[in-house]
Design brief:
The structure is a homodimer. The first copy, chain A, is α/β, with parallel strands linked by helices. Chain A has three domains: about 10-55, Orthogonal Bundle (Arc Repressor Mutant, subunit A); about 65-170 and about 340-355, Nucleotidyltransferase, domain 5 (2-Layer Sandwich); about 180-335, 2-Layer Sandwich (Nucleotidyltransferase, domain 5). Chain A is about 40% helix and about 20% strand. The first copy, chain A, has 13 helices and 15 strands. Chain A has helices spanning about 10-15, 20-30, 95-110, 145-155, 165-175, 235, 240-250, 255-265, 270-290, 305-310, 310-320, 340-355, 360-364; strands at about 35-40, 55, 65-70, 70-80, 85-90, 120-125, 125-130, 130-135, 140-145, 160, 185-190, 190-200, 200, 295-300, 330-335. In chain A, the strands form four sheets. In chain A, strands 5-4-3-6-10 form a five-stranded mixed sheet. The two termini of chain A are about 20 Å apart. The interface between A and B is medium-sized, with 33 and 33 residues. The structure holds a DNA duplex.
Chain lengths: ~375, ~375
DNA sequence: ATGAATAATTTCTACCGCGAAACTAATTAC
DNA sequence: GTAATTAGTTTCGCGGTAGAAATTATTCAT
């Protein structure tokens, strides 16, 4: 219901292979608890008693999602479908846990989010148990139990997840891959992230959170990344790397927006840089489609504007690496908005909250 | 039990979260029907009543697996764990369905396999519904209902599957990835095949059976494949392509065994060809590990001898494309034996047979 | 032998979810 | 207003499953 929207008891019963009687019984406790509500009766002119679709009461609770980076904390308040209501940013005073907690406190004040039901946090790095930050290079953290720290400070349930994992969850539940069983996610920003959902479940391994998607080799004539890989996805696609490459050619430093603008208006250097990156992105997308056997790739992150400027180059690169008999790869692009990271954190909090309400029996 | 081997009722109950009472009840019908047997009592010197492990009666039935190519049919007779007992080959008289059925008849006679419980067939091409061959380029077949044809001719249940899918199933159930949740399979032979298992289930898409794994770009300076891809996995790794490359350099034609032998003894041309292919294979393995998020890759197919001759090159290529922080990729190599293809077909037949015995209730 | 320990079985009961069938509710068609 | 139609509810019993407790089986230790 969260994913697909309002649905009548009867229709839901048919989909689940249950009788109408069972649906009455099963839905009652959720209605009693205010988790579900009956929607408006349909006015479609058909004969018979009109249906009263059930829906999740999406505004029953608000959620706070925060994305933590080395310098800032970004926060969004969402409803139960991870629709963003308000967003805010605050700068971190330092890299301590208390600095981060203070940042979250500031966000809560600024967003007037004192009433949120739960807090989800996401962070670049390895996270286990939806709470423990095993490693977060940007904050130089090791084995910090951030989830518990947030719960203690703010007195509400908290979930912590890797940022790419969280964003992938958001796309799967509420975003551009809602209800899709197999897809991958590529994020472009300060680095390159890669998430994968197969058989309706995100693939999580012990490597998850190490940022491996960021160092996939794409162009053996490309520049070096910080780890010394030539032409890896970070080297080819991260905002910093693209701006540096353009800066060399242009003889002055440019920021990402300017680079894209220059490319759009035909500047040769900018065009070259952007197209080289676009080709690399196309190769990455095609490789994911070929080897992970997905045919939908969601693109996200604040560096996604690249695709807008050079979409044809991306598509051409995909095609040249993809068998013509294969299903075409669907590219789904999210907004280039940084809030999508914080929204991902909120989505994880929502998911885990609903995980706590698994059956009618427990509500009874 | 098929996958993990004998296990006592008590231990099985603990693993499944069931009481000993339930396990007695649930296992009885299987024992009554002879599907399970009690094994030998343990003699470990521990006090108490000794355990009587349960096991699948692996020789309760025999299975016939056949692999169909454009020129031959290969057959193996196996037990219920897909252990190969006997194998045979026969040449096809033509490309008609009847020619294939005649070939299978010949195999049954040669293998004395008149008593097999079921027949599994595998074929290079797209197959749906475990029966319908949608497309099989080597036989120029379109929409041939081979499964039904086999059932009618031989009067026993038949399953038909794509050859790579079948081989992957065999590795997952009975082979080198027994009980592993996430792994991929790369086959090297006349072409290159790619199979993927995630979350314990093989990934099957509408592209499955089109041989897409065979045209993944690996080396943009490599030779062309039959479809005009430069340096794709087929061009770099298929037996025919490797032999052609070597033949150009050597000034005479060589077969695969000779090529590998020459490379092993240090012939410069052969070494160069084999190492170039080994590097390409390493890149393919690394790409699969990176993008499909697996850390076990099973190598199979009759062209796998390449790895024996140049394993260090393969490993070096994997490492250069893989983050050093990531889990190392485990390579598991099957025999270079062609029977593994036919064994795959048998594995599918076993799997579908056991799919027909899903619960104690149906046996009662 | 006897007792302790462990495995497996039997017996018995609880219970739980499901759906058939009958019923109520709310609409349109005439 | 009445009939037809479809949605949803209530009642009630069936079927199936599980496990607690007692029992039986089989070993080792002494």
């Amino acid at each position: 219901m969260l994913i697909h929207g309002p649905i009548a008891r009867g229709e839901l019963g048919r989909r689940l292979g249950l009788s109408p009687a069972s649906l009455t019984r099963l839905s009652r406790p959720f209605l009693d608890h205010g988790i579900l509500v009956e929607g408006q009766e349909r006015q479609d002119g058909a004969v018979g008693r009109p249906v009263k679709p059930l829906d999740v009461r999406v505004d029953a609770q608000r959620m706070l999602g925060v994305k933590i980076t080395g310098e800032h904390v970004f926060g969004v308040v969402t409803d139960l479908r991870a629709t963003v209501g308000a967003s805010a940013t605050t700068r971190l005073a330092g890299h301590g846990v208390d600095d981060v907690l203070d940042g979250i406190q500031k966000l809560i004040d600024d967003l007037d989010a004192h009433d949120v039901a739960a807090i989800g946090a996401s962070i670049g790095g390895k996270v286990t148990g939806s709470s423990l930050v095993v490693r977060a290079p940007f904050l130089d953290w090791h084995d910090v139990d951030l989830g518990t720290a947030i719960e203690e400070r703010f007195g509400r349930p908290a979930t912590v997840e890797n940022d790419v994992v969280a964003l992938t969850t958001a796309e799967q539940w509420f975003g551009h891959a809602r209800g899709v069983d197999n897809f991958s996610v590529v994020t472009i920003g300060a680095g390159v992230g890669y998430g994968l959902v197969v058989h309706g479940r995100q693939v999580i391994t012990s490597d998850t959170g190490l940022g491996l998607g960021g160092h996939f080799p794409l162009d053996n004539t490309g520049p070096l990344c910080i780890d010394g890989h030539r032409g890896c996805s970070s080297a080819m696609l991260s905002i910093g790397s693209m701006c540096s490459s353009a800066g060399v050619g242009l003889g002055r430093s440019v920021d990402y927006d300017e680079l894209l603008a220059l490319a759009a208006e035909g500047n040769a250097v900018a065009r070259q840089v952007v197209e080289t990156s676009a080709r690399a992105l196309g190769r990455l997308i095609a490789a994911s489609a070929n080897l992970a056997m997905v045919d939908i790739v969601v693109l996200s992150g604040e560096g996604i504007g690249l695709v807008e400027v050079a979409e044809d180059v991306v598509r051409a690169a995909i095609e040249s690496d993809r068998d013509p008999d294969a299903l075409p790869v669907q590219i789904r692009r999210t907004d280039a908005d940084f809030t999508s990271w914080a929204r991902g954190a909120a989505a994880v909090a929502i998911e885990s909250g609903f995980g706590l309400i698994p059956s009618a029996a427990t509500l009874r």
